[in-house]
Each structure stands twice: as C-alpha cells, then as structure tokens.
Structures
1.
Amino acid sequence: MQQSFITGYSRKNNAYALDLNKRQVLFLHPLLAFFAERFKTAGSIPPQLPAATEASLRNTWCSGEIAYYYQKFLLLKESGYFSASAQGADFSQTVDPEQIEQGLANNRRVVLEVTDRCNLQCAYCGYGELYWDHDIRENKNLNPATAKTLLHFLQGYWNSAANVSDMEDIYLSFYGGEPLLNFSLIREMMHYCQALPLKKNRIRFMMTTNGVLLKQYLEELVAGDFYLSVSLDGNQEHNSYRTFSRGASSHALVADNLKLCRRKYPGFFRDRVSINAVLHNRNSVAAVVEYFKSEFDKVPRILGLNPAGIRQERREEFLRTYQNLHESVAAASNCRELESELFSQLPHTQGLGIFLRESCDFCHQDYMQAACEPSVQKRFPTATCLPFAHKVFLTVNGKLLPCEKIGFQYGLGRVTKEKVQLDFRAIAQKYNDWLAKFSRQCAGCYNQKTCGKCMFFTDLEDKQLKCDEWMNAGEYSRAFSFFINYLEENPQVYGRVLPGGKDAANA
Ligand code: SF4
Ligand code: SF4
C-alpha cells in the first residue's frame, strides 16, 4: 500500500509535503515535518504529544511552538491530510476499437518513410548496426501508390464527424533514410495532397533531412512551405559521427547548405528551419548550443541516443557513445542559461510541468478530470499514447506503426497499393495485453502521476518485464525534492509550465 504523502527538502532545507490524496504541496514548518514523519504509520495519533517526544524537541524549540504545531498537525490530520495510505489509482482502463478509430480521425501527423536509403553512414544511426529493432535496409523507396492509399483512407476519417479537431493543420512528414534521395515521391505526394478534398483541415509538409542535398531542392522546399529539421551535431569535431560511407566528413557541406539557405531565403531559414543535434561523447549541450547560436542564431533541438533496441554485442560501444542530457546541462558553467534556453525540451523540466499539473488541485487536464475525483478515474498504465492518436508511420515495406521512434517489430497494420489493413479489435487487444504487463507495477509506483514512460521503450515480449522508471517512496522523495528545489530557485517557471503557460504544451 502506498503512503499518502511524500516529504521532500530543498537545498535551503525547507520542508515540503506532497499529499497524494489531496493533490496539494504543503510548505511545512520543521515541526510539522517532524510530526508528519514521526506519525507516518500510526493508526491513531494521541491528542497530546507524548512527553518523551516533547522533551526531545525542547533543545531546539520552545514548548509554546511545539504545542502550537502539534495542534496544527492534528487539525490537518482531521481534515484528511497526512493520512496513512493513498487512494490508489485505478489502472484498469483499457483501449477499445472505437477509441482507435477516434484517434485516427483526429490524428495530425502522418510520417512517411520515403526511402530506406541514406547518403550518410552515421555511427549511431537508429537504422544502423548498433540496433536490431528495424527492418533490414534494402535500398527501397516507398511506393507512391501505397502512400496515396493510406492518405485516401485517412481522408475518410478526417472528413468524418469523428474528427473534432476542425481547422487544425495536418502535417505530412517526410522521413527516411534520407528523404531527399527520393524527391520524386515527395513532389508527387505534395501534388496529391494539394488536390485531396479535406473539409476541415489543411495539409502542411515537414521533413527531417541530413541536409546533404539541401542545395539541390531548396527552391522547391521553400515553394512548398516546408518545415525542415536538419540534422547536424555541432562543429566539425562534434559532427564527426556523421560521415559518408568512406568516412569523409559531412560537416562542411551541410553547414554550407544551411548558410546558403539563410542567404537566399532569410525568412524561411528563420521561421521554418530547425536543427536537430544528437548528443554523444564527442560534443556537449553547452558546446552545441554555443555553435548554433554563434553560427546560425538558432537554438538546436538536442536529442539523446535511443537506448532501446541495442544489439547485445554492441552495448558497450553504445554506452561509450552515449551522453546523458541532464548531466551534460548540469556540468555546463552556464547551466542556468542553458536550462532556460532549452527549457521545453529538457526531460527534467518536462517532468516539472507534469508534476505541477498533477500536484495542484486547481489544475485539470480536461473537463473529465475536473468533474471526477482523481481516485475514481480509471487510467491507462504508462504514458503511452493511444494507437494512431499522435502519429501514423508508414514504412517503405508498407508496415503501419503508431510512431517512427519505436521498434519496427511493433507494426500494427499494413498498407498495399490497393488497401489499408487495420484490424482495430486486434490492435486494441494487443495494446491491452501489453499494458496489462504494466498495470501491477504502475499501481505500486510512486512515479505514477508524473510518469512519462512509453511502453514501447521496453521489451514488451519479456515475460518478466520490469519498468526501469518505477519508483519507491524514497526514490520519489528525491524526485520531489528536485522539483521543489528547482521551483524555489526558479519561481518564474510556474508561469511557463502551468496550463496556458508558454511551455505548457511541451511540458
Ligand atoms: S514515443 Fe510512445 S508515447 Fe510518444 S508518440 Fe511514440 S508511441 Fe506515442
Ligand atoms: S514509471 Fe513505469 S511503473 Fe511507474 S507508472 Fe510509469 S510506466 Fe508505470
């Protein structure tokens, strides 16, 4: 059984309690913190403080203070604070086929694996030799008829009454391999989408590219009003894992292409081009941010290496290459400045937003949460999105996945030139089987309300599956101490992460 409150301390030694039943964080006088800890497991609390306990406190506190805070503690207990056990969350929520169709109708991001070919051979590539969980790269291009079949199928959902996200843009995202190696498909899909009759939404285009061929297609990308994410890890040395097949550096070429884009299309470069930089052992968050700010006046998006799907025999190599984002920021001399600049993309500040929403009884995720007591709401275990609610990913082999970030073994359907094969009932069953593996662990996990775990980043076939982010009370007390300390030292971030704040959507 979970305890109902967690105590935590900031660096200034201020004490706080997170009351899980009340969804409130209390600032505690040290005596209140003492009483709360002392009587944590007691079934009943004596109306008068035991003489021995009072005597032990007299060295530090006068008897008037001790009596006052003991009465205050009793009053809070009477009002339901500091109760012995938490009302456990109900993780019995299940996915049903109708929810999946609803998700498809309101889906706003379709990702196409345009080709599995690439003109670079980055050492840490998610589709390279470090990882086992992708399809074999066979120099294949996506068949345009297959991509059109999918879009035609989705059009039916987008135009249906189930689509309640009227007027929101839908993003068609071109992904690879290197998508610019198959630009004819991109062109064909742009024309197809421009002619696709949609009643409620407009389709816009996005692309993730290594930037090697950018110069060649820049004009068309600007004309197509694309959002571009260009991958570059910093200066020549930082970028040294991103090489051509014979080991030659790709840095100068990509940096020159970015500079050309800025010279020819300054507005497009400013508003539509973002940088993805992978963090590894040859760069650091501080150095990468410094490089892109000085060279391109941009703050990059910093991505960590994916720890899921690593081949057992390459694990050591992965660990040598890996660098932790939080640690890299913490090690920087300008740590505060970096945290502020990268605020919405850092895992610990993202966690802060979730923590605040879940720990403030005046914040509600939606009307359902506002109307019901949190304890009676059914929840899904983990923080995995509903299938196809966020994204639909189509691979060159016609596999349909809920996301491009996850292993290809989690395909949920197929698309051929003629039809889309999706069995909503079977998908719901699959999700429910996978989620069931977590529900027991989640029920006993103190991290359950601030959970950011996507189930696909574990081995779902493992019968002994254990969540690596599960927390006991002590571990969560440390996480709680981190959050309150961060808020004490950075009070201005409240306004950024609470609902309606600048970074609320990302946090
Ligand atoms: S990473 Fe997981 S939770 Fe996030 S979009 Fe992909 S499938 Fe959904
Ligand atoms: S961290 Fe893991 S065990 Fe805890 S709630 Fe999230 S998925 Fe469940």
Note: Residues 232-323 form one domain.
2.
Amino acid sequence: MSDTTVDPKQYIIKSEPYYESVGDEVALYEAAYNARMPVMLKGPTGCGKSRFVEYMAHKLGKPLITVACNEDMTASDLVGRFLLDKDGTKWQDGPLTTAARIGAICYLDEVVEARQDTTVVIHPLTDHRRTLPLDKRGELIEAHPDFQLVISYNPGYQSLMKDLKQSTKQRFGGMDFDYPLEETETAIVSKESGVDSETAGKLVQIAHRARNLKGHGLDEGISTRLLVYAGQLIGKGVEPIAACKMTMVTPLTDDPDMRDTLDAAVQTFFG
Ligand SMILES: Nc1ncnc2c1ncn2[C@@H]1O[C@H](COP(=O)(O)OP(=O)(O)OP(=O)(O)O)[C@@H](O)[C@H]1O
Ligand SMILES: [Mg+2]
C-alpha cells in the first residue's frame, strides 16, 4: 500500500484528443494493449507519438501517466522514495509505481535519455512477472491487470553512448512513426491551427523540402508540431514569411547557409 492514495480518475483523459490516423497503428496498438504487451514508439520529434498515446488511452478508457525522462532521472524518481514530513517518514510512490497500482498506461517519453541503471527498473514489469519490487520499502507490487508500459524514442538521437540495452529493447513491440503523408499532414495542420487548407498545404510543402535536407546539413526535418506553430501565428495575423521564419527556420539551425536555403523555400511558397 502507498501512504498516499491516488484517484485514477485524475489521469483519465476526458475529451477525445484529435488524432488523425496514418495507417493501421490504432488496431495494432489495441491488439498490443489487449495482450498487455509493452510498446515502443519510434519516430522523429513532433510527429504525433504523444498525441497517439493520449488518443489511445482515451479510446481504451484507461488512465495515462506520462513521464518525461532525462539523464538525471534516478530509479527513485520512477519508483518512489521516503519523504520526511512533520509526522515522520512517509513513502511517496513514483509515477511508475502509481501506474502499476492503478492500472494506468505509463508513457515514458524519450526513455533513451535515462541512464541504463534507471531503465532496468522496468524489466520485471515488462515480462511475464509484471511485478515491481520497491526495494527500499520491502514491497513487491503486482501490476494491476490494466497496466501497460509505453516508451518513446527518437532514433535520430541514438548514439553508442545513448541507446537502450538489447535486454530492454527486446521487451517491447515496436511501432515506427513518421511525419504523416501530405494530405493527412495538411488536414492536421489546418485542424490544429485553424488556417485554411491552402495555407496548410504550403506549409507542408516547405516542410517536405526541408526534410530532404536531413543529414545534409540539418539534424532533423521540420516537424508537424512546427507546422502547427506556423499556422497558429498566421492565424493570429502574423505575415506568413515572418511566421515561417520564427517557427520553421530559426529553431532548426544556426547555420547561415542552411537558413538561406530554408528562407528560399519559404519565399517560393509565400513570396
Ligand atoms: N496524427 C496526428 N493527428 C493529430 N495531430 C497530430 C498528428 N501528428 C502530429 N500532430 C500534431 O503535432 C503535434 C506534435 O505531436 P506530438 O506532441 O505527439 O509529437 P511527438 O512525436 O510526441 O514529439 P516528441 O518526440 O518531441 O515528444 C501535436 O500537438 C499535434 O498538433
Ligand atoms: Mg512527445
């Protein structure tokens, strides 16, 4: 038992998140959830992974607990720790423990960022054991039947130093995500930002050009998220070239030549 009680309802997503399906991902994820299979979502930044998990949690009617991982994160940050208060010591569950107790979908975002000694705490939860040992507390939690673990990572950032161990990777079913096809992405940008589909279509075209520069001077292409930002500024009355510069050029690169190239692509469509 935890020393604090958590109401699962606080983690239920009340209204349906807008998610434009891009393939068979909804059915595949549902099947994985029904098997309580841990799932790994791979794909570039801003392509819809988090939105997809929110949509699926809502569709399945399950609570969702999201944890943004970083390299300073310790196992205790996930599992929990003793806290001192005026009445003495009190155990505080971490988000992973809460999710395992209440039967939530636990989404560990950018899990590669966490150190490997942190990541291994998920191992007993992601195989037939479905348990979580709270060593400091001497408690072994059996995961709630509805509990499922989902992790995301951006394959672009992988390096020899930062990667998941095979013994971690091979506990998950994997799903590849990428920027949606032109027509779908145009619909998303239009719906999310409120710009008309002609303007959204131009933003998507610019992104396509920039995405071809990935690996040729750009580390990442322009994400769907940035296209939505551009649309939002245009919707607020910002002149399109200025809006594109702020959202689709400046954040992406400091290299003057690359900026010129991107500016030229913007000019082609909005000049
Ligand atoms: N299929 C989609 N349906 C609806 N909106 C989408 C979709 N794909 C992307 N978006 C839009 O793009 C934005 C960014 O998506 P999201 O936050 O899910 O990216 P992500 O893949 O989780 O990125 P990161 O790896 O940086 O966390 C969303 O807020 C949404 O506006
Ligand atoms: Mg995300």
Note: The longest helix spans residues 197-211.
